[in-house]
TrEMBL record:
Keywords: Oxidoreductase. This is Uncharacterized protein. It comes from the Eukaryota. GO terms for molecular function: oxidoreductase activity. PROSITE patterns: ADH_SHORT. The lineage of its organism: Eukaryota, Viridiplantae, Streptophyta, Embryophyta, Tracheophyta. SUPFAM superfamilies: NAD(P)-binding Rossmann-fold domains.
């Protein structure tokens, strides 16, 4: 097998950031496993043919699926050096009306899905006293926005979980890296907007367009290209001393300012941005 690192990436549908992580890892001579749910396996064909990436069925909400995928990699190559917990879904809508089922699904995939992978891969990494675990959060996990409370809270939990894991896994030689993307151009925004059609707001019907605008917010003309973002993250993760945190992408500067701003400043900014500066 030589010295080639073995990497597993979750959520690798074509058009998404995970797809680009796989390309960037393959370009750095890693053995890459691109994974996603069964109905998206056809999206891996390009990665297999153009970059030598191996496709793998993996549902992050299923213990059995996760165990099967990880054990399959271990049996073939003996180790997993890099895990990128990229799988995630958007969740947009007012928290007072968004169905709990939708919120639960976002948490199950975005948060518990990451922890499920961590718990299954850590014993293998700990046995070798090495490994890099990359958990993908979001700028809105630090500064939540209206109409995105479900998604924001799932990513805030990822941030807290990652900060704890970073210290807890240090004695075993495992690096835990928190990735905080800004606005990255991918299919994520369009997929999130499509889900809005399933919801008929009651109290918030007058805000329907503002809610839809929140769903599109990360996909503006100035958003960072997904390939550029992925290459930046991979270069940091594969460096001799990976950083604790990688913050990169359009609007990260704005959110850094908002992080340190008084709450009334944040409230004023987001109220104007997302149509909440009026009373009904």
């Amino acid at each position: 097998m030589g010295d080639r690192m073995v990497a597993l990436v979750t959520g690798c549908a074509k058009g998404g950031i995970g797809h680009e992580y796989c390309k960037a890892l393959a370009e750095r001579n890693c053995r890459v496993f691109a994974s996603d749910i069964p109905r998206r396996m056809k999206d891996m064909l390009e990665l297999e043919s153009s970059h030598g990436v191996e496709a793998l069925e993996l549902d992050v909400t299923s213990d059995e699926s996760v165990v099967s995928a990880i054990e399959g990699i271990i049996s073939k190559y003996g180790r997993i050096d890099v895990l990128i917990n990229n799988a995630g879904i958007g969740s947009v809508g007012p928290l007072a009306e968004l169905p709990l089922e939708a919120i639960r699904k976002a948490w199950e995939i975005n948060t518990l899905g990451q922890l499920r992978l961590v718990q299954k891969v850590v014993p293998h990494m700990a046995a070798r006293r090495s490994g890099n675990i990359v958990n993908v959060g979001s700028v809105v996990g630090t500064v939540p926005t209206p109409w995105g409370g479900s998604y924001c809270s799932s990513k805030a939990a990822v941030h807290a979980m990652t900060d704890a894991l970073r210290l807890e896994l240090r004695p075993f030689g495992i690096n835990v890296i928190k990735v905080v993307p800004g606005a990255i151009r991918s299919n994520f925004g369009s997929a999130t907007t499509e889900k809005l059609g399933a919801h008929g707001w009651s109290l918030y019907r007058p805000f329907a367009e503002a809610i839809a605008e929140r769903g599109r917010a990360s996909q503006g003309a100035k958003s960072t290209d997904a390939a550029t973002f992925a290459r930046h993250v991979v270069s940091k993760v594969l460096s001799p001393r990976p950083p604790r945190q990688i913050v990169f992408g359009h609007m990260t500067g704005l959110f850094a300012v908002l992080t340190w701003s008084p709450l009334w400043v944040r409230d004023l900014f987001f109220s104007n941005r997302f149509g909440l500066n009026r009373k009904l």
